[in-house]
Specification:
The complex is a heterotrimer of chains A (280), B (372) and C (293).
Chain A lengths: L1 H5 L19 H33 L10 H6 L5 H33 L3 H14 L2 H11 L2 H4 L3 H25 L2 H10 L4 H12 L1 H17 L2 H5 L5 H7 L5 H33 L1
Helix pairs in contact in A: 2-14, 4-8, 4-11, 5-8, 8-11, 9-10, 11-14
Chain B lengths: L1 H26 L16 H12 L1 E5 L9 H12 L2 E5 L5 H10 L9 E5 H5 L5 E2 L21 E13 L22 E3 L7 H13 L8 H12 L9 H6 L4 E5 H10 L3 E4 L7 E9 L5 H12 L1 H9 L3 E2 L2 H6 L5 H6 L13 H19 L3
Parallel strand pairs in B: 1-2, 6-7
Antiparallel strand pairs in B: 3-9, 4-9, 5-7, 5-8, 5-9, 5-10
Chain C lengths: L1 H11 L3 H22 L10 H6 L9 H33 L4 H15 L4 H11 L5 H8 L14 H25 L3 H9 L4 H30 L2 H7 L6 H10 L7 H33 L1
Helix pairs in contact in C: 2-13, 4-8, 4-10, 5-8, 6-11, 8-10, 10-13, 12-13
The chains are: A mainly alpha (280), B alpha+beta (372), C mainly alpha (293).
Chain lengths: 280, 372, 293
């Protein structure tokens, strides 16, 4: 996501070394490079060590010896595939709704209502600050009965939760375009609005859209509190439920899910890299 | 003439048939199973089973799929026996969520039919239950049921101290021993006493071991505060931390300690000698149950000797255990595997005492442990 | 002025779906919670819930709620400032890196880690930094510095903050990275041409441009750290009074029956505190746009 949203910043990299030639502050810069290396190393250690510790625990049989056996037992665990399918359905639904809702709205706001941008920004911050445990109570209190029995209520809630991330991605993406020129050019060629959005703007917003989708995906596959409070067994809930008797398998599934989501998202991110290099 | 006779015969036959069917209709008059308070009153188990099969499914809630009092096997056996499908909503949910689900799912086909909750959740929501007395009603101790049949305890166990014999040289057998400095950083309660029933009763058991009683849970809180101060107590205890060795001593329900034993060879558990407390979970049938006959059949099954013995197989103590021992319907093999229960009859705190203890732990637990 | 009104409506119409959705999905539930906060179990309007959680009577039976607010605020503050700064620095290091794979990895994983938490995160840290069997604890003890001997306690407030960084830092990286795009290289070139050192560039141009975004990000981290529930509960199992845990114990527990409205009142109090932080965020964002347009 960082590099996706950066988009143009890749070309505007704040390069330091080029300016150190013949510069008395060169040693200072080299020290900063060193410092950066150490800082990144410590950060990497902080993030990797706990993951390693959990993996070390889960890839053991019960006698404490290293074993890959728990890996094979994951797929046999009851309900794994059905909860994976549920999470996938929710992810697709959430992404579709949030993009259909936000993209036209934000294009319009960028074009015609620039002052509303700040209002939108504040509104889309709110989901992050309302505690999920409180939000779900409120939602349950106002949702009509027919909607409560549907798993897609979760998708509707996730749309609200995804708004902060989607808004920022699209905002950065739209800000980097010369929107007025693009739209005027398309209009002068006789395009209707739908055509403009679909065939002109969306391709130009590919980075931002990819970033927004990826963030939404991460949210749906990682959100636990609301799904469990609402009683639906999504993948994060399934992991917590631990329908297997073994804490090792449960931990392994959690770690594998983390890794798998990272890898999948990395792959999706690299689609954008490829298209980017093709363009430039 | 023949026609007249034939007509006469036919009409007699018809009259006879209508008499018979009329009689049968009177016997099989449409039963509103939601108001049935005992199977005997409406044609016994046969009628109940028939009506339940017609409904085809029963909605249970927050029943863990594995590792909890053998419910996994119980559900499978029930479905195999009667062909009635069990829908288990929110398998790892809490009692609070069960009550919420009933209130919010009212009128829906997937609303809960039956609940298995902490007792106070049942007694505080009497308006949600339909009264029903199972066939083995007399085997349930009177202190463990509502006299009118609105709720009834099902299974339970004692607070037990589990211990990883590979890590801990001498396993503690009482709360007093836990203060031994050799157990530094090793003692944990499973989960949070303000939200998990097992942890709550663990503190209560510690209280009884330290001069407290059913009316006073504070000594237990002070005990763990002290244990924390000397460095023996560790928060964050779960089955996973027990398996990973981070909390080689884990205080939990005795019937759940066996789940830990299956992933930690050498895991032993014992009911503490100086402070014992038992707690049972409670069953109830919801008033607006969408499958009232199936719900009642489920309860009949759970309280039959088959169901109760299956709980026993899961190391939980079925509520009818004393009665089953007396009438020899208990499975001796399962019984033998249970850790030795304390002598004497089981006593329980009253609802008032439970409420007082709950209030005390909610206000004092965090402040005691964090020392503030 | 019906003409002006009509024009406003026409201009505003395309934004309506978004507003309607937000009203239904966010505003309405919030109003529902506020309503429940002021009702007793029987449904009657009452201020009693508020009186209890604010512990107006100062008795010991309700002091845990006040302590809970204090601890939650302390936790939120620490986990907004420290991960905020660290996250900004790490985001900068990533933004200026030349390694494609590294950028891709951090981009993907910061999104995933920002959502991570709960039982599994708590277990990861117990397994690595626990007193008895922690992997990192043993490594550090082997080089002579066992953190537990020097005052480190994973289960106290600062230990929880230490664990919170695992999702707070990625959240900050996620939020702050677009801001680096606004730091135009042309400004850097201009500064260099005018003879400014790196330090002066940052002091007069870089930091002032980034500061509002960094501070804004910290407000978001504050909200996130204040509301986080599952991780703290799994780690501390109720041994520290933290407001979300108190709410969870009532609404999601098996012990405290019959107190639901108290939990809604606690939730209402949390919303009020967080709204204040959002207002602070909004004020700071106004300053950012001045520089980046």
């Amino acid at each position: 996501m960082a590099s996706l949203v950066l988009g143009d910043a890749m070309e505007h990299e704040v390069v330091m070394s080029e300016y150190s030639r013949g510069n008395p502050s060169r040693t200072w810069i080299r020290r900063v490079h060193w410092g950066r290396g150490i800082a990144l190393f410590l950060a990497a250690a902080y993030f990797i060590i706990p993951f390693y510790a959990a993996m070390q625990f889960s890839l053991q049989n019960k006698y404490g010896h290293f074993s890959l056996q728990p890996l094979t037992q994951i797929a046999q665990a009851p309900g794994f595939f059905s909860s994976l399918w549920l999470s996938t359905q929710l992810a697709i639904a959430t992404m579709a709704i949030v993009l259909i809702l936000m993209v036209p709205t934000m294009i319009y706001v960028h074009l015609r209502l620039p002052r509303f941008r700040r209002v939108m920004e504040v509104i889309t911050i709110l989901p992050i600050v309302i505690p999920p445990i409180v939000l779900i109570v409120g939602v349950d209190g106002v949702t009509p009965l027919w909607l409560k029995s549907s798993q897609y209520l979760l998708a509707l809630i996730y749309v609200v939760l995804a708004m902060p991330y989607v808004y920022r991605s699209l905002d950065a993406g739209l800000g980097a375009l010369d929107l007025k020129t693009l739209v005027e050019a398309a209009r002068s060629l006789g395009s209707g609005w739908v055509s403009i959005i679909w065939r002109v703007l969306v391709p130009n917003l590919r980075s931002a859209l990819l970033s927004a989708s990826v963030l939404t995906l991460a949210l749906v596959f990682g959100e636990f509190t609301i799904a469990s409070l609402d009683g639906w067994t999504t993948i994060p809930v399934w992991i917590y439920l631990a329908p297997t008797n073994s804490p090792r398998i449960n931990t392994l599934v959690a770690m594998m899910a983390l890794l798998a989501t990272c890898v999948v998202l990395m792959v999706i991110v690299s689609f954008d890299r490829k298209s980017h290099s093709r363009r430039s | 003439m023949k026609v007249a006779v034939a007509a006469g015969l036919v009409s007699t036959m018809l009259a006879g048939v209508s008499l018979v069917s009329g009689g049968a209709n009177a016997a099989t008059k449409k039963v509103d199973w939601a108001t049935v308070t005992s199977a005997k009153a409406v044609g016994g188990m046969t009628a109940l089973i028939k009506a339940a099969k017609k409904e085809g499914h029963v909605n249970v809630i927050t029943i863990p799929l594995a590792g909890w009092a053998n419910y996994g096997l119980i559900m499978k056996d029930f479905t195999a026996k009667y062909g009635i499908h069990i829908n288990d909503a929110n398998p790892n949910g809490s009692s609070a969520q069960e009550i919420t689900a009933i209130q919010q799912d009212k009128g829906r086909a997937d609303a809960p039919d039956v609940v298995d909750v902490g007792t106070s959740y049942a007694t505080e929501n009497m308006g949600l239950w339909a009264p029903y007395k199972v066939a083995t009603w007399s085997l349930i101790p009177s202190a463990s049921k509502d006299p009118n049949g609105h709720w009834f305890d099902d299974y339970g166990g004692y607070v037990a101290i589990g211990c990883d014999t590979k890590v801990v040289t001498t396993c503690p057998t009482s709360f007093a021993e836990l203060s031994n400095p050799v157990y530094k950083n090793e003692v944990a309660i499973n989960n949070d006493p303000t939200s998990a029933s097992a942890a709550f009763y663990a503190v209560w058991a510690a209280s009884i071991a330290n001069g407290g009683s059913y009316s006073n849970i504070q000594p237990g809180i002070t005990f763990f505060a002290n244990l924390n101060k000397i460095g023996n107590f560790v928060p964050g205890g779960t089955a996973a931390t027990a398996a990973s060795g981070a909390t080689p001593i884990l205080i939990w329900w005795d019937y759940l300690q066996n789940g830990v034993a299956s992933s930690v060879p050498g895991w032993k558990s014992v009911i503490p000698s100086d402070g014992t407390i038992a707690a049972y979970y409670t069953q109830a049938i919801t008033k607006d149950s969408p499958d009232p006959a199936a719900a009642r059949l489920w309860e009949e099954y759970l309280y039959s000797s088959i169901g109760q013995n299956l709980f026993l197989q899961g190391y939980a103590r079925p509520i009818e255990l004393p009665g089953m021992i007396a009438n020899h319907s208990v499975n001796q093999g399962f019984l033998a595997k249970l850790p030795a229960a304390p002598k004497g009859a089981v006593t329980f705190p009253t609802m008032t005492q439970v409420n007082t203890a709950k209030a005390t732990i909610a206000s004092n637990w965090a402040s005691a442990i964090s020392g503030s | 002025m019906p003409g002006a009104l009509f024009r406003t409506l026409r201009t505003g119409a395309p934004v309506l779906p978004f507003l309607v959705y937000v009203t239904l999905g966010l505003l309405l539930p919030t109003v529902a919670i506020i309503n429940l906060a002021f009702r007793s179990n029987a449904g009657k309007l009452t201020f009693n819930n508020l009186k209890v959680i604010l512990c107006v009577s100062n008795s010991t039976t309700c002091s845990q709620y006040r302590v809970g607010f204090e601890n939650s605020l302390k936790l939120a503050l620490v986990t907004s400032i420290v991960p905020g700064i660290l996250g900004a620095l790490i985001a900068y290091a990533i933004a200026t890196s030349k390694h494609e794979l590294f950028k891709r990895l951090t981009a993907a994983c910061s999104g995933v880690l920002a959502q991570f938490g709960g039982v599994n995160l708590a277990f990861m840290f117990i397994a690595s930094f626990g007193a008895l069997t922690g992997v990192a604890t043993h490594w550090l003890a082997d080089v002579g510095f066992n953190p537990w001997d020097h005052g480190f306690d994973l289960y106290k407030l600062w230990g929880v903050a230490f664990v919170y960084m695992y999702f707070q830092i990625p959240l900050m990286v996620l939020i702050i990275t677009p801001a680096f795009a606004g730091l135009k290289e042309s400004w850097r070139e201009a500064a260099e041409n005018l003879g400014a050192s790196s330090w002066r560039y940052w002091r007069h141009i870089g930091l002032p441009v980034l500061a509002p975004a960094v501070l804004g990000g910290m407000f978001l981290l504050f909200g996130s750290g204040f509301s986080a529930y599952a991780t703290a509960e799994a780690l501390t199992t109720g041994t520290i009074a933290i407001t979300p845990i108190q709410i969870g114990a009532i609404l999601q527990g098996n012990v405290l029956s019959g107190e639901a409205n108290l939990a809604y009142a606690l939730g209402f109090a949390m919303i009020v505190i967080l709204l204040i932080s959002v207002i602070g965020y909004a004020l700071l964002r106004r300053r950012t746009s001045r520089w980046l347009r």
